Amino acid sequence: MTSHLIVRGKKIHVEIFGQNHLPAVLFLHGGPGESCYEFVYYQARRLSKELKVIAIDQRGVLRSERIGDDESFGMMDIIEDCEDIRLQLGIKEWAIIGHSFGGYLALVYTKYYPQSVSKVVFENPTFDFEWTARNLLKCAGKLFLSKGDKKHFHECEEYANGFYRTEELFDHYLRLGEILGDEKEKIYSPNQVATDDSVYTDEEWEAFSERTDVHLRKLREEGRMFESIIPYLSELHVPSLLLVGEYDPVTCDKHINEYNQVKKGKIVEFKGCGHMLHSEEPDRYREVVTDFIKER
């Protein structure tokens, strides 16, 4: 079922799959601003055989209502939206799957609404944007070097190893990523996986993208996303699962070392995969996630 819910005054795009009696799970996409489209394309049918899957485009993203230029918006609005959706759907508690920046959101949501969460799956998450941005810059540098572009390789190295604020590192990575163009995707995964987006016209996708730009800009301006939430890991009270791709650049070794201290935490590595595990190995992903969420 695909619909819009009015959530705290805004239309939020919500997709629901699976029977009501099945364990409920909310998917939080990354980006910021990437949408749940790809996850639904690869996992909705697979997961909904044993789980009730709820996937959303976060406030202001893609198919959700646009955030006005004069409206206030910050990270906690996404968290409050999730809780409002849970209440509207009459779900007592649900598991959370957070991909990339969605993993950051999943950990924050669990901290503020612990009674609402049964389990958490972190798929190649970031909990510290500085660590992630530095590692992404190193990976971008290697890609530039492989193309013979020593100028931008040295620029990436300077930012990756220099004394810069997290906001600066993030902005420089976005700028250098634009220089790479389509080649940027090679940073995230060695596997190129196609998603059929022909259900929408090019004009519709362009309009959706404009909404997402506002979402990202306002989060960037608020700045809360640049705060490390590594300390939240020690407060994680529910069983959790960290899924990491062998070649993923977002969840660097520092993240994994910190997660290793989490009580009730498990780690599963996907060999040969990068950042998009749910699309790179969709059948194994379904199996691992379903087994974990249904495990007593």
TrEMBL record:
GO function terms (MF aspect): aminopeptidase activity
Keyword Hydrolase: yes
Stored Pfam families: Abhydrolase_1
UniProt keyword terms in alphabetical order: Aminopeptidase, Hydrolase, Protease
UniProt keyword annotation of Zinc present: no
Region forming the signal peptide: none
Enzyme class: hydrolase
Superkingdom assignment: Bacteria
Residue span(s) of domain AB hydrolase-1: 23-282
Gene3D superfamilies: alpha/beta hydrolase (3.40.50.1820)
UniProt-listed Enzyme Commission number(s): 3.4.11.5
Family as reported in the entry's similarity comment: Belongs to the peptidase S33 family.
Protein name: Proline iminopeptidase
